[in-house]
Structures
1.
Amino acid sequence: MKNFRKEIVFQTKNRVEFINITGEVQRAIDESGIKEGLCLVNSMHITSSVFINDDESGLHNDFRIWLESLAPHEPISKYRHNLTGEDNADAHLKRQIMGREVVVAVTNGKLDFGPWEQIFYGEFDGCRRKRVLIKIIGE
Amino acid sequence: MKNFRKEIVFQTKNRVEFINITGEVQRAIDESGIKEGLCLVNSMHITSSVFINDDESGLHNDFRIWLESLAPHEPISKYRHNLTGEDNADAHLKRQIMGREVVVAVTNGKLDFGPWEQIFYGEFDGCRRKRVLIKIIGE
Amino acid sequence: MKNFRKEIVFQTKNRVEFINITGEVQRAIDESGIKEGLCLVNSMHITSSVFINDDESGLHNDFRIWLESLAPHEPISKYRHNLTGEDNADAHLKRQIMGREVVVAVTNGKLDFGPWEQIFYGEFDGCRRKRVLIKIIGE
């Protein structure tokens, strides 16, 4: 069994941002030399997500509005977590809806994907250094 | 390390539908000959889900109503994604709540499940051909 | 390839409760002797979750209130599932938002985590015996 580990670093300019990382994950699979296996991609932070959906800017706008309606950023004082001095309680909630991680199949050295699947880093408390972990096992 | 890959194809009659695929996943494990490992089951599409919950029709009705309240299909014009000519923006949102994939343990050649766990394909934009991927690694 | 399996048992005193199980998962990794691999941690029940977020009591209170607003326990009669004699339909919904499972990387024999990541068992229909499964594969 082979295994491979890599980190990707982000520092977004906006509090909320979606970044397509499909190419970087495929490059990690290439570097690993693994042809058949499973690839875990997870946020190493608790206010951001890794998820799979469509690379369509209108949809990303819909996600932003929808998540804001389900877990609004303001009023800050609405959340007890923000009594710690943080203002990011909403980001912890949004991340639960979008998920922490994806596990994807590696087949014949490629991401084994349907026609529209793309992997995104979803930031909900940006403007600071964040990391995503890629861990691949297989052979 | 062994690995095994299989696709299941669906074409639902309704826009929203939940289909129990536990038997098909266990059959894939049987075919694979893998006794100990991990089994990934994921939708290959971005408007449907694979999830684990109860096989109870009342609950499935509750899911349908609840998801519709959180991410309504109409008005279509509410979503910017639908400006692309699609009418399925809500399906992309519903799928985030229900999830893209499950990873399940394989122990002694069987799905290692609690008493009520059943695997479902959750369709939110049906009446077209869709696929689910099963990828198993182990030995 | 090595594999390792372990169950953790819970019986909470409250209907809704969040329990930090990070130490127990690390102990399972230690027992397994696996240095590089993937570790699945999942609820074996369909009214509870395993998820990764912050170990901060204010945030857990926010989770409780937020989940109650998205999927209220009462009125019991609101849910068709509860016609079966259960009163836990809301717990089945809450668990979909928080997720069934996490898959975490094992690197050099340790949980490969960012600075604040902690694993929680999230109970939404407590006061009865429940189990969490840990399955680790790797070498």
Note: The interface with chain C takes residues 1, 3, 5, 38, 40, 42-46, 70-71, 79-84, 89, 92-93, 95-97, 99-101, 103, 131, 133, 135, 137 of chain A (CB under 8 Å).
2.
Amino acid sequence: MPILEILDYAGVAVFAATGALSASRKQLDIIGHLFLASVTGIGGGTMRDVVLGATPVFWVTNPTYLLVCATVAVILFFTAHLFDSRYRVLVWLDAIGLAAYCVMGAAKGFAATGSAGVALVTGMLTATFGGILRDLLAGEPSVLLRPEVYVTAALIGAGAFVLATMAGLPLAAASTLGVLSAFVVRGGALKYGWTLPTGKALPGRDPDDVM
Amino acid sequence: MPILEILDYAGVAVFAATGALSASRKQLDIIGHLFLASVTGIGGGTMRDVVLGATPVFWVTNPTYLLVCATVAVILFFTAHLFDSRYRVLVWLDAIGLAAYCVMGAAKGFAATGSAGVALVTGMLTATFGGILRDLLAGEPSVLLRPEVYVTAALIGAGAFVLATMAGLPLAAASTLGVLSAFVVRGGALKYGWTLPTGKALPGRDPDDVM
Amino acid sequence: MPILEILDYAGVAVFAATGALSASRKQLDIIGHLFLASVTGIGGGTMRDVVLGATPVFWVTNPTYLLVCATVAVILFFTAHLFDSRYRVLVWLDAIGLAAYCVMGAAKGFAATGSAGVALVTGMLTATFGGILRDLLAGEPSVLLRPEVYVTAALIGAGAFVLATMAGLPLAAASTLGVLSAFVVRGGALKYGWTLPTGKALPGRDPDDVM
């Protein structure tokens, strides 16, 4: 199986797992697990295919991806209570999914357009969109608004892949470099609380006070 | 008019009505009614057409659907205060829309791909996406997180339609079977509080306590 | 540069600015600014292109739009604290973006289909979708639920453009008329608190009390 396909299945499977864990935290039934697992697992890649015009999207062309989501959801429905902290498992799996998907998204965007800028954005969108949907639908605090670097990690992974590809590295090496870069940055942020400076900005006031 | 077209107009009209009722609950103006009615009415089918690559989407090809949404919104803007409980009307109309749209979505996905798995997912997405958008935009508690079966009903309706079609039943019979299955399940859930078991999972703790 | 292209860049730039200001209110880092600026700047136009089937979407075909978003985000990351009220700047820029984008969306929808109804809806969606995404992602109170006219202004701008085009006015005149109509209505609503009547509807009760 080629490296990009492995990354695609890995991204779908681990994002599906984070969706199922989120459903478990909300005490949803098995169908709620299937739903959130599917939306999270295929959401980012669907967004990527839609903006690139690569429709029908990947899971319509190859429904195996749906089977992956469903299998992950069923397994976690029966086992999620065994974890000491589902949220901790969720964010680490999310880090793996982010790393796999930012490279996969960048690769597909770069192949379709040859533009580094488009590849960065499709990498970032593919990696973050599933998790954003999951948090919105489950009513969790959005991972976007947490202080640790998140979108940054996706952007670094996509950037490393694009630079390595433009420098002439073979696909497998560029992909591995991209995945590792993103995972190290996101993992470091989770473990050591890495943050970027936030500028001089004050917190926002209530709209009604300033209008 | 063929059965699938009837289901499509019915799905659009009743989902548009739930959007307008939601706008009424939020005391929005007439344009707010038009907006939420349109987004809810055409949101699910738009999502379906986009992932299947059937673009321009259905309401661009045939703007009559927009006229249906607008008419429903205007009528409800002037009459919504007459209902004793708009929320009760909203969830029952939503049940009808769910039943019509899960079959319509499954039919379009099955016709486009021949895959039962894809048909289940497009049925489920078409039936639920409009309502999810409505609840997100109006800031209502998402119907997804309520305990009664909801996505389940859409999945059962789509499944019944696909099984009946694969068994060789004519389109009208398979559609009727699918619509009735979904409506009975969702209606029973509303009336008798049917739920599925939620496994052994405990509720989620606050992210800041477990990281 | 033709008028529609100017409107497109203007819409992207000012919506990107509102996204960056929203990121600043939430004290996000520079990547958070880039992310929210991009999503807000290109969100509405992406939605427009997707429903019209005009894929790959505009910023994949022409990545200059991404550069505009990134430039705006970086500038505002370093300067947002200089404004006395970022929210006030945000809503006024949002008004300019709304005015530019409702005409741009209506023009593209009208050119693709010749239907005035479709043009109204693509104008409205293009103008409002970026801001809706921004508010959802940043957890701000949605501009949709505020009492001042908002969607209404987009609809009036799109309608003025379509009527003027159907009456035979040249593109530049019709565009200017549409932009001014939308901006005057939205600006008047912001400055003088213009609202539309909300009918006789009472506020919604809690779902658990009425089911």
Note: Chain B touches chain C through 40 residues (CB under 8 Å).
